[in-house]
Design goal:
The complex is a heterodimer of chains A (224) and B (404). Chain A contains eight helices and ten strands. Chain A has a six-stranded mixed β-sheet with strand order 6-7-8-3-9-10, with helices on both faces. Chain A has a four-stranded antiparallel β-sheet with strand order 2-1-4-5, covered by helices on one side. With 404 residues, chain B is of the alpha+beta class. Chain B has two domains: 187 residues, no CATH class; 199 residues, no CATH class. Helix content of chain B is 55%, strand content 17%. In chain B, helix 1 crosses helix 10 and helix 2 crosses helix 10. The radius of gyration of chain B is 32 Å and the shape is elongated. Classes of the chains: A alpha/beta (224), B alpha+beta (404).
Chain lengths: 224, 404
């Protein structure tokens, strides 16, 4: 494992025990992702790509095998440390945007920063990020429900970046957007990748996957 | 101004978003706090007022025949005429008490309970008799004069209203079918209100002359009780001991009581009633707790997806727990605060209505019930929120994110 490896999976298996028989959602997946890569994970539904995503996103731990994020074996971490890793090292961008409805756009971006540093942003960083994704201060004062899908996803991108994560993890980032907005968001991700960020994106849209340097195809819990 | 904790802000906004629901849940706490605080205040005011009234006669010792019935306290003059030979204090004993009591003022009381009839109404009341000199020494009239013949009486102020009598009115004592027959007397004086006191409960009584009493009920020189008015209140225990030693040398002939004992009895009775009433008020808090619990469970269920988002972007379990406990605490503290203000208002009215005076309302013992009720109410609210909050914090982020 080189020093620029951000993610390393080794023979990862995830088994969901069911009465009708165990489901092998991941069946021996090994892969490494280097710093600065733009990787697309593709596969039909039920192939295990969401499960793989959850492993990389530290939302779940493997049944066997190891998942290392920035060298840390997540299987050995406590829930507290795993949560802190999600907060500090991973920026999530979801298909359904998943902004916190009770907070304004600005506060949504600020939230992970406050969680991490236990203080509100006084450096202007939050608004700078929002400006970068095209959300001005007036728009940032609105709650998510008052924003369009494209605007919400821009806010989500800004939120994902606020703690300077090692990985940007995107789950069907354009799945709920029209094609024009999709292109804008993808251009944004591509720009972020060119600036040196590691971007991992789950998608089933081949056109979206074109932006990636590398495409990993998952089928029946294995890399095809 | 410093912005509050972001977790607290989320709680505040959730309460505000579901304002009606939160207000209704808080209403339960308001009612519970008002109930608890008001009952506490009524009890405290009653105790304070009784204590104050009794302290007016704190220098009086009451000596009663010891009928061997144990320590139960009877209101002076009520009941007490059994066939037991010893159920009175004899003249000899009275002399002994007098000697033992030294310079204290000692007087005896006859008492009976009898039916009375006036022009307007009828009922039952206590009839007291004492010697003429003691009557003038102990009792105070607001109007009229003390009886000078056996057919004249003075009455307590409560009877004036109850029987609609005034000076010059006639009162028929006893029943016509009674062995003693019916005797008509005339009211010549109205007594000053004494309130609750242990030596003689004259507010509700008719005071007759000794001659009238023994003429009607017999039992001359058989006194129902002897009161000893001690000059120096510090000497009261010494005098009580001295009486006890003199009269109870062989057998327990008499019981010597002072107002502190009556106070104890009344306090413990009040305490029992208060405990019972508080238990009932407690039920209203229990109902409030259930409604808070319900609201919190609803809040958790509605926000499962939000909890999933919060967890996935790095919110710790403890922070989720805190968020929901805060929410319950906000409802509880606001409810308890409103309850406190209302219980001051409602408590004041109820105390005035039930105790008759708000003289002691602002005493520490009375007002302390408000913060106490508040703390209990708020705590119950917070405790009710703990389980739903714990449930929320235990949610699996992946599962929670999948929720619609």
């Amino acid at each position: 494992m080189s020093s620029t490896t951000v993610i390393a999976l080794e023979d990862v298996r995830k088994i969901y025990p069911l009465l009708s028989g165990d489901v092998h959602a991941l069946d021996g997946v090994s892969l490494t992702i280097e710093k600065g890569e733009f990787v697309a994970i593709m596969g039909p539904s039920g192939s295990g790509k969401s499960t793989l995503m959850n492993q990389i996103g530290c939302l779940d731990v493997p049944t066997s095998g190891t998942v290392r994020i920035e060298g840390q074996d997540i299987g050995t971490l406590s829930d507290h440390d795993l949560t802190a890793l999600r907060r500090d090292s991973i920026g999530y961008i979801f298909q359904k945007f998943n902004l916190i409805p009770l907070l304004t756009a600005y506060e949504n971006v600020e939230y992970p920063l406050v969680l991490r540093y236990r203080k509100y942003d006084d450096s202007g960083r939050v608004q700078a990020l929002l400006d970068a994704v095209g959300i001005d201060a007036a728009l940032a004062a609105h709650r998510p429900a008052e924003l369009s899908g494209g605007q919400q996803q821009r806010v989500a991108v800004a939120r994902a970046l606020v703690n300077e994560p090692a990985i940007l993890l995107c789950d069907e980032p354009t799945g709920n957007l029209d094609s024009k907005t999709s292109t804008q968001i993808m251009e944004m991700l591509a720009t972020l990748n060119r600036q040196g960020r590691t971007v991992i994106m789950v998608t089933h849209d081949a056109a979206t996957a074109e932006y990636a340097d590398r495409t990993i195809l998952i089928q029946d819990g294995r890399i095809a | 101004m410093k912005k509050p904790d972001i977790i607290f802000q989320l709680s505040m906004r959730s309460v505000r978003l579901n304002l009606l629901r939160s207000v209704l849940a808080a209403l339960g706490i308001v009612i519970g706090v008002v109930a608890i605080a008001s009952i506490g205040m009524i009890s405290a005011n009653m105790t304070l007022s009784v204590t104050e009234e009794l302290s007016a006669t704190a220098n009086v010792l009451v000596v009663k025949p010891d009928s061997g019935g144990g320590g139960s306290f009877g209101m002076p003059g009520v009941g007490g005429s059994s066939d037991d030979e010893d159920d009175y204090i004899s003249d000899d004993q009275f002399d002994d008490i007098r000697k033992a009591a030294g310079s204290s003022y000692v007087y005896y009381l006859y008492s009976e309970s009898d039916s009375v009839e006036t022009a307007d109404s009828s009922g039952r009341t206590t009839i007291y008799a004492m010697d003429d000199e003691a009557m003038k020494e102990i009792l105070t009239l607001t109007e009229g004069s003390f009886p000078s013949t056996t057919s004249q009486v003075v009455i307590g102020p409560d009877l004036v209203e109850r029987y609609g009598v005034e000076i010059g009115s006639k009162i028929a004592i006893g029943d016509e079918d009674d062995e003693n027959g019916q005797t008509t007397v005339r009211v010549t004086g109205i007594l000053e209100e004494r309130g609750m006191s242990m030596d003689i409960s004259s507010d509700n009584a008719i005071i007759v002359t000794e001659k009238f009493f023994t003429g009607r009920y017999g039992g001359e020189d058989e006194y129902a009780q002897v009161n000893v008015v001690v000059d120096d209140i510090d000497e009261i225990d010494t005098v009580a001991e001295s009486i006890d030693e003199t009269l109870n040398r062989k057998d327990d002939e008499v019981r010597v009581e002072d107002s502190s004992r009556m106070l104890d009895t009344i306090s413990s009775t009040l305490e029992t009633i208060t405990t019972f009433a508080l238990a009932i008020a407690g039920i209203s808090l229990l109902v409030a707790a259930v409604s808070i619990f319900n609201v919190m469970m609803m809040s958790v269920t509605e926000r499962i997806r939000e909890i999933g988002i919060l967890r996935s972007i790095g919110t710790q379990k403890g922070e989720i727990l805190r968020m929901f406990v805060y929410e319950a605490a906000i409802i509880g503290i606001v409810g308890a605060g409103i309850g406190a203000v209302l219980s001051l208002v409602i408590g004041y009215v109820i105390v005035f209505g039930m105790v008759g005076t708000t003289e002691y309302f602002f005493a520490l013992d009375s007002l302390a019930n408000v913060p106490e009720g508040m703390i209990v109410g708020a705590l119950i609210c917070i405790i009710s929120g703990v389980y739903p909050a714990w449930r929320a914090s235990k949610l699996d982020p992946i599962e929670a994110l999948r929720a619609e």
